[in-house]
Design goal:
Glutaredoxin; alpha/beta; 5 strands; single chain
């Protein structure tokens, strides 16, 4: 049976595209590549206007970056999952790499109710530093129930953070509940 399928697949692939069909009309073919030529762009007066209403960053798909001195852990209890990124200086290469990696895939993090709290000033002694006691660079994932779930001394990309969140019991309940409502 496998041999017959293999022979059929090879014969089908050997046929190639239909040669009896007429050549496509160049005017009906749409170019899917973005226009990079500024001369082809419409004038500014013809561009659509930006919406006037304010959209929540979680709804827009952009990651929410918050300064640790401006927020407290209790604000996110049962509403969001803080991912806290600590460093001793804002120029720490691991800190810069981590923040950029989390910004790249904001939609995946927003779907998991993640807010990113950054703290790169040890002298500020924020409540985050008092409770979590980081040493140098540190990535801390806190679940919606306020419990620390993961601590990492090295940067993670958003995909790894998302996978770790998907293994959490609360996230599994959310996923299960979401599929029942559909």
């Amino acid at each position: 049976m496998k041999l017959k399928f293999l022979i059929f697949a090879v014969a089908l692939a050997g046929m190639g595209p239909g040669r009896d069909a007429p050549a496509p009309d160049p005017e009906t073919i749409r170019d899917s590549t973005p226009q990079r030529n500024p001369a082809r762009l419409p004038p500014v007066s013809q561009l659509p206007e930006a919406p006037q209403e304010v959209v929540s960053p979680l709804a827009a798909g952009d990651p929410v970056l918050l300064n640790a001195a401006e927020v407290e852990p209790q604000q996110f209890l049962w509403t969001a999952r803080p991912v806290v990124v600590f460093a001793d200086t804002p120029g720490d290469p691991a800190f810069v790499e981590q923040v950029e990696a989390l910004r790249l895939d904001g939609r995946a993090l927003a779907a998991r109710d993640v807010v990113i709290v950054i703290d790169s000033d040890p002298s500020a002694n924020t409540i985050w530093r008092q409770q979590l006691r980081p040493r140098g660079f540190s990535l801390v994932l806190i679940d919606k129930d306020g419990q620390v779930k993961i601590r990492r001394p090295t940067p993670w990309d958003a995909r790894e953070v998302g996978r770790a969140i998907d293994r959490l019991p609360l996230r599994r309940q959310e996923i299960g509940r979401g599929s029942l409502l559909r």
